[in-house]
Amino acid sequence: MSISLTGTAASTPFASTATSSKLDKALDTQSVEEKFLEYAKKTPAEKMFEAMLGQLGITPEQFAAMDPDAQRAVMEKIQKLIEQQVKNGGNNEPGQITDKMA
Question: Contact, 82 vs 52, CB < 8 A?
């Protein structure tokens, strides 16, 4: 017994796979663009707050889901982190704005 695969039916699965992978890539690119635009629209304070949450290992979504007492505790931790950075002279990494006396 022999089976013959001729015509367009044999190539259809491969064509749809190629098409779906192109679609997946387009969706991924769009997702990245949307994420970037969302980040770019944030204020410096919002970016700093999210960075501080990251230092504590908390995502913005996790913070939003917390009860008010837990949020207050996190805010106190963030306040202490900021105070420590100010006492230590801030962040002296390249690209940071600093005051220099001439």
Answer: yes
b/e per residue 7-22 (b: at least 16 CB within 10 A): eeeeeeeeeeeeeeee
Q: According to the 3-state scheme, what is the secondary structure of 13-77?
A: HHHHHHHHHHHHHHHHHHHHHHHHHHHHCCCHHHHHHHHHHHHCCCCHHHHHHCCHHHHHHHHHH
Phi then psi for residue 91, to 5 deg, are -105, 120
**What is the residue-level pLDDT of the chain in tens, covering all 102 positions?**
555 445 444 444 444 445 556 655 555 566 888 989 988 999 999 998 999 999 999 999 999 999 999 999 999 999 998 888 888 876 566 655 555 555
Structure-token pair, residue 19: 């098409």
85 three-class SS: helix
pTM over 0.70: no
